[in-house]
Amino acid sequence: MTVTLRTTIRQRPPDHRGGYELDTAEITAEGQTYDQAKQFLEEQVPDGWQMLGISRD
After folding, report:
1. d(CA 11, CA 40)
2. Smallest Cα–Cα separation from 9: which of 34, 35, 27?
3. Alpha carbon of residue 15 to chain centroid
4. Given this model, what pLDDT does residue 48 score?
5. Comparison of pLDDT for 31 and 18, the residue scoring more
6. Strand partners, 56
7. Fewer CB in 10 Å around end: N or C, the chain?
8. Are 41 and 7 in contact (CB under 8 A)?
9. E-strand spans in the chain?
10. Alpha-carbon distances, residue 27 vs 7, 17, 20, 41, 49 (angstroms)
């Protein structure tokens, strides 16, 4: 069984003042287990970005 996970990632703001236009992107990963797919997702997140949530297809 293959597990497919999807997440939206967003740039982290430089500070908490707000008003920034931050880029977002969607990434997916597949693994044999949920934990493996989640690890593959996390490995794709660039420095300075964060995952906003994870959904399972």
Report:
1. 19
2. 27
3. 20
4. 94
5. 31
6. 5
7. N
8. yes
9. 3-11, 24-31, 49-56
10. 6, 27, 22, 7, 12
Domain annotation covers residue 15: no
3 state DSSP class of 40: helix
Which tokens is 20 given?
A: 């920034």
- Pair of tokens at residue 35: 């934990």
Contact 50, 27 (CB under 8 A): no
Give a yes or no: residue 30 inside a domain: yes
Helical (H) or strand (E) element with 35 = helix 34-44
First to last CA, the chain: 13
Does residue 37 sit within a domain?
A: yes
Total domains in the chain come to: 1
The answer to whether residue 41 sits within a structural domain is: yes
40 within 8 A of 31, measured Cβ to Cβ: yes
Name the residue range of residue 50's domain: 3-10+25-56
